[in-house]
Design a protein that fits this description.
The complex is a heterodimer of chains A (801) and B (200). Chain A has 801 residues and is mainly α. In chain A, 64% of the residues lie in helices and 0% in strands. Classes of the chains: A mainly alpha (801), B mainly alpha (200). At the A-B interface, helix 19, helix 20, helix 21, helix 22 and helix 26 of A face helix 3, helix 5, helix 10 and helix 11 of B. Chain B: Keywords: Calcium, Cell membrane, Cytoplasm, Lipoprotein, Membrane, Metal-binding, Myristate, Nucleus, Phosphoprotein, Protein transport, Repeat, Transport.
Chain lengths: 801, 200
């Protein structure tokens, strides 16, 4: 079945390509070849009018206007092909767990390229640098910046910078010089190349590529420190790469003679300007975005659009000023994430996240497919065994040496030293990718006689790293027993304790009089809270910023979600009505007073794995929610069963969640359905048992409260149970789920207290007579409820037992 | 100030502190000069007001409790040894110490001792249990205080405290004992989270 679908899809792709080529062939005269001009994928005809040109004899009902739609059609078709390739790749899950998706996509690119070539058409579709750098790369990097775990990133910033700057320079220098030395020694035969060109080549091949790193490390969940090192390095080394590339390019143009100390100093200065300038541009745009989202309350529907446009503009602005565009867009994403998530409406936040992922994923797919296709172009292939093999050897060996050297120096200053195994994985994870290819394709053929050789070598290096190292990464990580990412979510105690630790460390640093890492972070926090949040966040967002409160809110949301899910599974939420302590008051507590809260908690580097639940809640459950902790509070005070057993079954425990899982395609937490079910069943069972075992009338006398009241105090019934406030039982009064023999006893007991026996049939029905016994309730509330109670008799009478 | 300060600290004392706390010679000297700079009364001990003079400590939610932690039971002054002893809890655990002779007493910066320090921050009355109220007090202090308008009701804090205790409590006494505390934090990298780098 899967095979058939696979073949069918491949056939479709083949067919699409052929159709396109045929159409192309009939319309276009000469083959285009891979053109270095800026151009969209494929040929770009400017069609002023219909392409046919011949005189029209009569009215044509239908015409085939290919040229009219050619350019956008081809683009759309290629995107479709890339998407279909991804679908084909993901068909077989066992395959993707062994071979990373990126490698398979390159493979499909080869196949497609082969089809196109075999059809006789020259390569019209290659990954041109313009398309790559302007249309495909920005969204990948924006996605990386937006989802970056900030706390982790900045606490390891020093190490990341060392690897990015010094490491890349080291790689560039050693590879370039090594190749030059070998060329001098004659290992490469006779090629027209010089020292500067070697250095240039070294600088473009030295950089670790973010796209490749994400693609490969996504499958392999290494521990977060290791991941952030490699990933952060791949993002930040763009500053160095851009500078080195431009500097050596200029040197090659100038010729060797013109280089003197002044030029070299200029080169070093330009590094600082490019790197810091790029970051500054990004930060400015982040400020702009945050300020903008502060004011977009009335146009929430297009709020998400601003993020993308401004992000893209930051990229282009930096590019325009010849600063580092990647650094710009990365810092834009990093700096704005907190504020826009706080300011924007939940739906907008969700939209931004998903759209970001769609774009990034799509771009990545297209990039890899085209990397494959670009290979099938005989015009660029120049084979020089020495050059290619030596390049491969050098980048591999010098990467290892560089990483180990730098780590040895860094470990002297780090609190937690990087282990040997982590260093091995870091060296091995230095993958090269499309950025290198984009850079090499931008070289001028006239200045670089051996451009094709370099292009071929770059492609081979990219294939080698992505495919070979990608495939072997997972087994290597398993074999070396690298520490993997933590799978379980932090418990509440751990979260609070982490906060305590932070405060503790700051205090100790203050006392011992040294300016340490924690001190700086604390100072930044204070500054941020006082000034930045005031400036960049909406007032309502500011109120709900507190970490502890957010924890609390999240937990309640989770509980509520789970109860609702269980209720839906069982057909209704009536099981809630059974419960002695179902305290249905979430709505009152949270909706009324905190209606604008952002449940998206990104405080403290929890990754954006929390789906905003309350938006879903609003749709399903207008007024039901559970305040479980309050119930248990009551229980422990009044009942005599083992509270801690019950409490251990609480839903928020033991839920598996992938924290910091930097995943291209998975945004949500891993909700283990079976686990949730099981917990529910256990909880429900024990509740029913407790219900049975309670001595006094544990009848849940529930009041209807249809009004939001300002402060909810857990109402205590005389027998110590809290009341249940539920609305007009929107889930059907007719549900008999509760009736497991308890109804009788409940009703019996209730009957003693509540003369209105008729109401006691359903355990969860309000009893107006009972209301008078509510102590904490003031008369006001009582007054409010009686009219609502009056509604009940009708609904009850319609109930047919 | 430097030379005068170190001359007040005798070599044997430095050696003793070194053995007890594991700090290096230069670290001890450096911390001694810090001690003397805090000691305005110049009587060789620090009182609570000396600590409270540190400006950043005043805005730290746990500032008071940490200051308290320096002073042994019932005393109001702490000398340099006591000062170092408390600070030693925050020394990073080094690799060569991990394989120490198990019969030797626990170094001050071992995981257990670090956790004990953290535990005692909560447990003010020293009854070896963190009760709900004690936890509530800490939570109240840690809640954002700088911004106006963030008011979390005691009730909500109370429920957080309840849930935290529920998670940790195993014997049902509605409080967290030291062992339960250790168990709850077993996955946390305490060695890293409770260490600072002392400059040489």
């Amino acid at each position: 079945m899967a095979c058939r679908t696979c073949l069918w899809l491949l056939g479709t792709a083949f067919f699409t390509c052929t159709v396109r080529l045929v159409v192309e062939g009939t319309e276009v005269g000469a083959p285009q070849g891979s053109h270095p001009e800026p151009g969209v994928v494929g040929s770009n005809h400017s069609q002023a009018g219909g392409g046919h040109g011949s005189s029209i004899s009569g009215i044509q009902i239908v015409t085939f206007k290919w040229h009219h739609v050619e350019a956008p059609y081809l683009i759309a078709l290629w995107i479709l092909v890339a998407g279909v390739s991804k679908m084909v790749v993901e068909l077989n899950h066992s395959l993707t767990s062994v071979i990373p998706e990126s490698a398979l996509l390159i493979l499909i690119g080869w196949i497609l390229g082969g089809i196109i070539y075999g059809a006789g058409k020259m390569q019209t579709f290659t990954l041109t640098p313009t398309v790559f750098f302007f249309y495909l790369l920005p969204q990948v990097i924006l996605d990386a910046g937006y989802f970056m775990p900030n706390k982790l990133f900045f606490s390891n910033m020093g190490a990341i910078l060392v690897y990015a700057v010094i490491g890349t320079c080291w790689n560039a220098a050693t590879v370039g010089l090594g190749l030059w030395g070998c060329w001098l020694g004659g290992a490469m035969g006779d090629i027209d190349i010089g020292l500067l060109q070697f250095l240039l080549f070294g600088s473009l091949i030295a950089a670790v590529d973010p796209v490749a790193v994400i693609a490969v490390f996504e499958e392999v969940h290494v521990n977060e420190v290791l991941f952030i090192m490699v990933f952060g390095e791949s993002l930040l080394n763009d500053g160095v790469t851009v500078v080195l590339f431009n500097v050596f390019d200029a040197f090659v143009s100038l010729g060797g003679a013109e280089i003197d100390a002044v030029e070299i100093i200029k080169g070093i200065i330009s590094f600082f300007v490019v790197a810091f300038g790029g970051s500054l541009v990004g930060i400015i745009f982040a400020l702009l975005i945050s300020l903008l989202t502060r004011c977009t309350k009335n146009i929430q529907i297009i709020e998400p659009g601003f993020i993308f446009i401004l992000g893209y503009l930051s990229y282009l602005t930096a590019e325009m000023l010849s600063l580092s565009a990647i650094l710009s867009i990365v810092f834009c994403g990093i700096c704005c994430q907190k504020y826009i998530n706080a300011n924007m409406d939940e739906c907008s936040v969700t939209t931004v996240r998903y759209v970001m992922k769609v774009f990034a994923n799509g771009s990545e797919t297209i990039i890899f497919v085209f990397l494959g296709i670009s290979a099938i172009d005989p015009a660029i292939w120049v084979w020089n065994t020495g050059f290619i093999l030596l390049t491969l050897l050098f980048i591999f060996v010098f990467r290892f040496i560089g990483v180990f050297l730098l780590t040895w120096i860094l470990n002297k200053y780090r609190l937690v030293p990087l282990e040997f195994i982590d260093q091995v994985v870091m060296s091995y994870g230095g993958l090269r990718g499309a950025v290198a290819y984009g850079l090499v394709a931008m070289l001028d053929e006239n200045k670089f006689k051996e451009k094709n050789l370099m292009v071929s070598t770059t492609l081979i290096v990219v294939y080698f790293t992505v495919m070979l190292q990608g495939i072997t990464m997972k087994p290597l990580v398993t074999w070396l027993k690298v520490k993997r990412a933590a799978v379980t979510e932090l418990t509440l105690a751990e979260k609070i304790q982490n906060r305590t630790f932070d405060h503790m460390l700051v205090a100790i640093e203050d006392i011992s009089g040294q300016i340490g890492h924690n001190y700086m972070r604390d100072k930044w926090h204070n500054f941020e809270e006082r000034w930045l949040c005031w400036l960049l966040m909406k007032p309502s967002a500011r109120k709900s910023r507190d970490y502890i409160f957010n924890i609390f809110h999240q937990l309640n949301l989770k509980d509520a979600m789970s109860y609702v899910k269980e209720g839906e599974r069982r057909g209704s939420l009536a099981f809630v009505r059974n419960e002695t302590k179902a305290d249905v008051d979430f709505n009152k507590k949270f909706r009324a007073s905190f209606s604008e809260i952002m449940p998206d908690i990104m405080a403290d580097n929890m990754g954006p794995d929390h789906v905003p639940l309350s938006s879903i809640l609003q749709d399903i459950v207008p007024s039901v929610c559970l305040d479980m902790h309050e119930q248990d509070l009551e229980m422990r005070e009044s009942e005599d069963f083992n509270a801690h057993h019950l409490l251990q079954q609480h839903l928020y425990r033991g839920r598996k969640q992938h924290r910091h899982r930097y995943s291209r395609s998975h945004l949500e937490t891993n909700k283990d359905e079976n686990e949730v079910q099981e917990i529910f069943q256990r909880t429900m069972r024990s509740r029913l048992e407790s219900f049975k075992s309670a001595k006094m009338g544990v009848a849940p006398a529930k009041k209807i409260q249809t009004k939001h009241q300002k402060k909810d105090k857990p109402q205590k019934m005389p027998n110590g149970n809290s009341t249940d406030k539920s609305k007009n039982h929107p889930y059907g009064d007719k549900d008999l789920e509760f009736s497991e023999g308890d109804c009788g006893s409940g009703g019996e007991a209730a009957g003693d207290l509540f003369p209105m026996r008729a109401y006691g049939v359903e355990a969860g029905i309000v009893n107006p007579a009972f209301m008078a016994e509510m102590d904490p309730m003031d008369n006001m509330q009582q007054m409010q409820q009686i009219p609502h109670v009056a509604l009940l008799p009708q609904t009850l009478n319609s109930f047919d037992p | 100030m430097g030379s005068r300060a170190s001359s007040l600290l005798r070599e044997e004392e430095i050696e003793e502190i070194k053995k007890e706390t594991g700090f290096s010679h230069s670290q001890i000297t450096r911390l001694y000069s810090r001690f003397t700079s805090l000691d305005k009364g110049e009587n060789g001990t620090l009182g609570r007001e000396d600590f409270q003079r540190i400006p950043e400590l005043a805005i730290n939610p746990l500032g008071d409790r940490i200051i308290n932690a320096f002073f042994p039971e019932g005393e109001d002054q702490v000398n340099f040894r006591g000062f170092m002893r408390t600070l030693a809890h925050f020394r990073p655990i080094e690799d060569n110490e991990k394989n120490k002779d198990p019969t030797a007493s626990e170094p001050l910066n071992s995981r257990i001792n670090k956790l004990l320090f953290a535990f005692q921050l909560y447990d003010l009355d020293r009854d070896d249990k963190i009760s709900r109220d004690e936890l509530l007090q800490v939570l109240r202090m840690m809640v954002l205080r700088m911004m106006v308008g963030v008011n979390i009701s005691d009730e909500q804090l109370g429920s957080i405290a309840d849930r935290t205790i529920q998670e940790a409590d195993q014997n049902g006494d509605n409080s967290i004992s030291f062992n339960e505390f250790i168990k709850v934090l077993e996955k946390v990298d305490v060695e890293q989270k409770m260490s600072i780098r002392f400059l040489h």
